[in-house]
Structures are given as C-alpha cells and as structure tokens.
Write a structure and sequence with these properties.
Pfam families: MoCF_biosynth (PF00994)
CATH topology: Molybdenum Cofactor Biosythetic Enzyme, Chain A
Function: May be involved in the biosynthesis of molybdopterin.
Shape: globular
Radius of gyration: 16 Å
CATH superfamily: MoaB/Mog-like domain
Keywords: Molybdenum cofactor biosynthesis
CATH class: Alpha Beta
Order of helices and strands: EHEHEHEHEEHH
Largest sheet: 6 strands, mixed
Number of helices: 6
Pathway: Cofactor biosynthesis; molybdopterin biosynthesis
Distance between the termini: 29 Å
Family: Belongs to the MoaB/Mog family.
Strand order of the largest sheet: 2-1-3-6-5-4
Structural class: alpha/beta
Oligomer: single chain
C-alpha cells in the first residue's frame, strides 16, 4: 500500500515594486504547483522590495504555528533594490546551503552562466522551512519541479523537509541543542533526520 502524502500549510510572498495580483505570474505558478501537489495555500501576498517589509511579513509567518512552509519569489538578484536574502537570512536558525547550490546547477541548463546572479536562499526557522526563489516564472518552475516538489513530499526518501515541519512526526528538536531562540511547544524531539 502506498503511503499517503502529508498536506503542508504553505504561504507565498511575491516581492516586487511593480507586480499586482493580475500580473504576478511567478506567485501564481507557485500557487498552482503547490496546490496541484496536494498542499494547502494559507495566504498569498505581494510586498515591495523593502528589506524591512519583507522581513516583517516573513517573520510573522515563521511565528505562526499554522504555517509550515514559506515560499518567496523575487528580490534575489543584484539589481536595484533586490534585498530578499538580506531580509530573510537573519531570521533563519539554519540555512540550507544545498538549496542554492542545487538550484544554480539546475538553472545552468536553462540560463548558462547567468545562474551565478541568483542569490536564492533556503533555511529553517521555528520549525518552518523557508525558500526564497528568484522572481522569474522560469526560475520558480525550475525550483519547484527540480527541488521543492520532492523535498516538500513527506514520502520522498531518504529524506525531505516535510518531515521536519509535521508536528506528529516528531520534528528535529532545535531547542535541545540551544540553536533556536525562544523555542515553542511546536518543537518536539523524536524521529531522527538526515544530517541531524
């Protein structure tokens, strides 16, 4: 019998000075893909490229016990006001270096050496997994199809990030190692995780 996939509560944040709900194709691509995969969209928002507004929204979601996954799109490049990594990195308890590395490897097949201008970011904070993606629809498709689809699937072996954010699975206990400030009741020790 096939093991059922656990549904995750996901939020999507588009970071752009110009996009609206009608023109936000990248955010819509993420919403379409996450819901097609069986996850629940909790909220979708658009904020301008402002480090403090980005940080405030993401911090609020990290603190929300109902949110398990935060996906952002936009602001990860080097132009103009791109500041998503600066806004989000300080909120993370642990960074997922492999996310950016794997994304750039996959992206190289599509945009060649231009992929080095992506500062996409992943990490864990307060038992929430956060992924900051570039703003192009192609990059969002690449990240979802090549990485996030399986890493947010609780059935993916040998390891995935879904099992770190599902309460009944006994998530990794960040607070027992003194690595997460102000832990809460959502944290519990239990099933070991890869690399943990």
């Amino acid at each position: 019998m096939t093991e059922p996939m656990d549904t995750l509560n996901v939020v999507v944040l588009t970071i752009s000075d110009t996009r609206t709900e009608d023109t936000d194709r990248s955010g819509q691509v993420l919403v379409e893909r996450l819901t097609a995969a069986g996850h629940q969209l909790v909220e979708k928002r658009i904020v301008p490229d402002d480090v403090y507004r980005i940080r405030a929204v993401v911090a609020g979601w990290i603190a929300d016990p109902q949110v398990q996954v935060v996906l952002t799109t936009g602001g990860t490049g080097f132009t103009g006001r791109d500041s998503t990594p600066e806004a989000v990195a300080v909120l993370l308890d642990k960074q997922i270096q492999g996310f950016g590395e794997l994304f750039r490897q996959l992206s190289y097949q599509e945009v060649a050496s231009s992929t080095i201008q992506s500062r996409c970011l992943g990490g864990l904070a307060n038992a929430t997994v956060v992924f900051c993606l570039p703003g192009s629809t192609g990059a969002c498709r690449t990240a979802w199809d090549g990485i996030l689809l399986t890493q947010l699937d609780s059935r993916h072996k040998p390891c995935n990030f879904a099992n770190l954010v599902i309460p009944e699975r006994g998530r990794h206990d960040w607070t027992s190692q003194g690595e997460s400030p102000g832990g809460d009741a959502r944290k519990s020790s239990g099933r070991p995780v890869a690399g943990g």
